[in-house]
From TrEMBL:
GO terms for molecular function: ATP binding; glutamine synthetase activity. Residues 125-485 form the GS catalytic domain. The chain crosses the membrane at residues 47-64. Belongs to the glutamine synthetase family. SUPFAM superfamilies: Glutamine synthetase, N-terminal domain, Glutamine synthetase/guanido kinase. This is Glutamine synthetase. PROSITE patterns: GS_CATALYTIC. GO terms for biological process: biogenic amine metabolic process; glutamine biosynthetic process. Keywords: ATP-binding, Ligase, Membrane, Nucleotide-binding, Transmembrane, Transmembrane helix. It comes from the Eukaryota.
Length: 485
């Protein structure tokens, strides 16, 4: 089943001159560990010369954080000892798009390869997804996925000016940012009319940029929108989820709007989720293999009546491994402000048929069509790297299939408080530090599924994040203690 992002005719190096006949320049971008696009503009002549073999790209994008501060503990890919050497960036010609808000400039994603082995560097997000997909493809399966993002939007006083969030916040405290619209009004048909040009331009730009939106509406929260991206092949879905943020951040600048994908931008209000859906298919027929063609007459729980044996093992792998991969689905200090009880975010190892309080929501008959049987991972927030999240879900699930794991806990009881523990479900990490220590520990599921090299690198980047937080002096601390202690 092809994704809408796939071009009709495969692009080859030989077809590039004709494809780019009227162009003079090309934009290239790769993805770093935080899911941030890192790239450059090159001349067409330069691009044609490097389209096949690739080009040198400074490895420091895997040696510094999201604000270009080199990590406290130097990591293997990029460090002083190797001189922050170049790695190889190879354009993925199948990722071709044109940027509609930049006069249709051609755009390609790149993959990052080790210059010595020509294999993907261990932390390359696209490479990790391909590695996990390779495991299921060897067995004759494919994977489909979908992504949903919630995000807050703020407006600057002069909505006609182009301003970056960083520039605004240099002069104004974060809490002074006014919401795009006020109040709680999910699924409103009238609120988007207030910012109609922006609302439709984001939708239309996503279609033109091949990261199509399937559903687009207001969510409960001041200035909050939610986008459900069109379902597609898992690898392409990861790309489109990353590019969706690029569209929103680019289009919003001309309207003086600041989109915010933080997991929890405002105290006392719901956070921003980044739910991911995943299903498995037969590579030969394209049929959904999570669906049980003959209902189980005696299931352990009614929730899994229509879930195949393979689907049960897959679910077991996700649930068993979830506590060990939390930094991938909750990667920032702020992520854990969203994962608190009773805020429509799951905090335990839990699952259930059509249960939105659970970490894993099973979507299956009788409420869904057989071909739509899938898992929705509800732990991940909008602040995640979608490549890592989808790689983690696929990797854990397939580990469960390979090891023939059994579902470790009963389904979450109906009527439970949203986000609460039920039936002894294990509480997930309460902080990035706690999550990362479990992720990096000897014998973690993460090491078994993703390998030591990846765990050491990504875990090292999270250690850096935790240390910065430990050293930070927050506004809350100053306001609370400046006079009273």
């Amino acid at each position: 089943m092809a994704s809408p992002a796939t071009t009709l005719d495969p692009i080859t190096a030989d077809s590039l001159p004709q494809l780019l006949a009227s162009d003079t320049k090309v934009k290239l971008a790769g993805i770093d560990v935080d899911g941030i696009l890192r790239g450059k503009l090159v001349s067409k002549k330069k691009f044609l010369s490097i389209a096949s073999a690739g080009f040198g790209f400074c490895s420091v994008i895997f040696g510094w954080d999201m604000h270009d501060l080199t990590y406290f503990r130097e990591l293997k890919i990029s460090n002083k000892e190797n001189g922050y050497r170049d790695i190889i960036a190879v354009p993925d010609l199948s990722s071709f798009r044109r940027i509609p808000w930049e006069d249709d400039v051609p755009f390609f994603l790149v993959d990052f390869l080790d210059p010595d082995t020509r294999e993907p560097v261990c932390a390359c997000p696209r490479g990790l997804v391909r590695k996990m997909l390779g495991r299921i493809r060897e067995m004759g399966y494919g994977a489909m996925a979908g992504a949903e993002y919630e995000f807050y939007q703020f407006k600057t006083p002069d909505t006609t000016s182009e301003i970056s969030p960083a520039a605004y916040l240099r002069e104004n405290p974060p809490q002074s940012l006014p919401s795009l619209t006020e109040g709680m009004f999910g699924y409103s048909l009238t609120r988007p009319v207030h910012n109609q040009a922006y609302y439709y331009e984001v939708f239309d730009s996503c279609e033109k940029f091949k990261c199509d939106i399937e559903g687009w509406h207001t969510e409960s929260g001041p200035g909050v929108y939610e986008a459900a991206l069109e379902f597609g092949e898992l690898g392409e879905m990861a790309d489109r989820a990353s590019l969706f943020k690029y569209v929103v951040k680019s289009v919003s600048t001309k309207y003086g709007i600041i989109p915010c994908f933080m997991a929890k931008p405002r105290q006392g209000l719901p956070g921003n989720s980044g739910h991911m859906h995943i299903s498995l298919t037969s590579a030969q027929t394209g049929e959904n293999i999570l669906f049980r063609t003959t209902p189980d007459p005696n299931p352990q729980w009614p929730d899994i009546t229509h879930l195949s044996d393979l689907g049960r093992h897959f679910l077991a792998g996700i649930l068993t491994g979830l506590p060990d991969i939390m930094p991938l689905v909750a990667p920032t200090v702020n992520s854990y402000k969203r994962l608190v009880e009773n805020f429509w975010a799951p905090v335990t190892v839990s699952w259930g048929l059509e249960h939105r309080a659970a970490s894993v929501r099973l979507i299956a008959p009788p409420t869904a069509k057989p071909g739509a049987t899938r898992f929705e991972i509800r732990v991940s927030g909008a602040d995640t790297n979608p490549h890592y999240v989808l790689a983690a879900i696929l990797g854990l699930g397939w580990w469960g299939v390979r090891e023939k794991l059994t579902i470790p806990c009963p389904p979450l009881g109906k009527g439970e408080d949203v986000g609460g523990a039920s039936d002894g479900g294990q509480r997930l990490a309460r902080s990035l530090k706690e999550a990362n220590e479990r992720f990096m520990r000897k014998g973690s599921v993460a090491r078994e599924v993703f390998g030591d090299e990846f765990v050491e690198h990504f875990g090292g980047t999270r250690e850096h994040e935790v240390r910065l937080w430990d050293e930070a002096v927050t506004d809350w601390e100053v306001r609370r203690y400046i006079e009273t202690v």
